[in-house]
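Homework-ish question, so no full write-ups if that breaks the rules, but can someone show me the predicted structure for this set?
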Amino acid sequence: MSKIVRMKDIAAMANVSMGTVDRVIHNRGRVSADAQKKVMDVLEQINYKPNLIARTLSSSRNYRVAALLPDAELDPFWRSSIQGIQQAHSEHSQFGITISYHFFDPYSGDSFRQQAHDALESGPDGILLAPTLRQEALDFAGICREQQIPLVCFNTYIHELAPLAFIGQDLHQSGRLAAELMTMIAAPGTILVTHIGEQVQNSAHIGAKETGFREFVREKGSSHFEVNTVQLESPSRSGFKASLAQALETHPHTKGIYVTTSKAYEIARSLEELGKTDIRLIGYDLIDENLTHLRNGTINLLINQNSDRQGFLGISYLTDHLVFQKPIPTLQYLPLSIVTRENLNSYITSQEVN
Amino acid sequence: MSKIVRMKDIAAMANVSMGTVDRVIHNRGRVSADAQKKVMDVLEQINYKPNLIARTLSSSRNYRVAALLPDAELDPFWRSSIQGIQQAHSEHSQFGITISYHFFDPYSGDSFRQQAHDALESGPDGILLAPTLRQEALDFAGICREQQIPLVCFNTYIHELAPLAFIGQDLHQSGRLAAELMTMIAAPGTILVTHIGEQVQNSAHIGAKETGFREFVREKGSSHFEVNTVQLESPSRSGFKASLAQALETHPHTKGIYVTTSKAYEIARSLEELGKTDIRLIGYDLIDENLTHLRNGTINLLINQNSDRQGFLGISYLTDHLVFQKPIPTLQYLPLSIVTRENLNSYITSQEVN
DNA sequence: ATTCACATTGTGTACGTAAACATTTTTATA
DNA sequence: TATAAAAATGTTTACGTACACAATGTGAAT
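A: Not a homework solution, just the prediction itself:
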């Protein structure tokens, strides 16, 4: 029977005007201690839930969100993040959300600083950030905090950033999962953990996966498997395939390769060219380049970081925070999705609507 | 620059009143051909998107939704569906959605009819249905169509129901996936597909999984694996373990068991009691009973039907349809999530909020 | 031409909140 | 005490839509 309580009702119960109730609820000040108490007393008795619909309609202002993430032209991994952001945007545009995009070179501090500057220039009410560069991200987060701009981060977890929300994957656990899967599908022998032309800045990020991987093997598979880390040339250089071949010669009993980034397709391509078919390959992310090899069997498993959903949730959370003033999760770990040839389509199909 | 167009603007452009615009947009009739044309012309030129916020606030009526699904007391599988429904409800209750629950015995037509009758009695504006009983569901859907009550179904796909939306899993593909996983982790030998005390009504439902499973093995694993179907006693009967032991004697080279329902824990328990440790076990759903065995390793893999998300989406779609009059997907297949010991937590953890 | 029935069109109010604005009360100052 | 300034409180309007209601216009029957 509990009818919905409105500000009007509270005003009546407390014997004050709606204006006063409004001032108390939003503590805008300019209220006598007496009135304050009267309203607070009522608020404690009843369970007032503001009507978010009415609130949104009333204060129908426009919110600007700046999305700051690497350029998908430079790394296709980010394509799906952008898709997720765009989908969230199209679902929320009616709430007066506009998004400006600022794409940076994921390995260039200068590029980041430039784009970050532009993002701030646009006078955003909220910022969505993929903090691939640690130090630059920290500096930027400081400015956001100074300027009181809500910051939501995704993909790369950096504890000290202390954003309003982080959305991503538990990387340590992700590494453990990869190891579990590898020990399930690979024959006993050597497992290579590959790092491909990585920059120093990313080392913490990648490190958590490797640590998790090794931890699992130590716990559960040390009798059958030996883990070795190899550093390969950047795929953009001609030496890439050679450096892989070299690694395989050094470790002749290699039965599996774990690629900690979305670049498994580069390894897959080289393995095909080298005619190696007895090596299990586990990598990350449903980018087109990987899917081809997952379908033809060169890549056996992919762990999906759900970066489309990361982008989607990032924008959704900012909308909830800005528009609806709803509480949002501080830390949102997404599922560690395992993708094979047979469940791939269930992860990438979109549905018709009516 | 494209300012948002309101009904007011359309009225001005077409030289009519807002009332007329309203009548045209909602084709409530009582409009002259002349006025109709004037408004339509404007509507074709501009891109009018109604403000759903304002619409919702204005027609702030209450919607009743009836949820009709099996009793979780009789089958724990349904617990998570209910959780999902409740979560969606708590997120949408501010939009004036109230839900009445009607739990039936999943194997009793009488029970279903009784609860379905109650559900209709409650005068719902929308219905969420888990159509476990085929014929009864068809009859019920007919009544819903007659009474023009929107019907959203989940979990069990029945084509002839033709609901507003179906949310669930592609069962054929689910079977294929199970087979792919089984051939990855099991040693060559016999694979058993088990049916546990199933009712006739569910045969179509379960059949799709088995067909998919066999199809995959035929295509990709026929040289190493032989698939056999076994029918076991209902776990409630004392003969369950014996019937399993009997099946394993009949098929002495059994290396894997595929349980097409959420009852893998029953098999796991019996396997433990029988001391069988070399048989891989793949089942469905993250119910507590299964998780225990997944954690201790008796169950190797679970395929998650995401029934919490099914319930959540079911209510969300009904809300979108009723409250926001948004288009919703006709057919929403959810991902075929693969769950292991190491990614289990990423599927069941909930987050703190701020 | 007058009246009535009916079709069409226009106007006003409600939804619940936020925020601008107007009014009253209190306090400080001369 | 008178008066201005400041503080507190109350009132009104806007947000965009839906819907009830009022006001026109049209044509037919008397």
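Now go work out the reasoning yourself. Hint: The domain at 171-304 of chain A is CATH 3.40.50.2300 (Rossmann fold).
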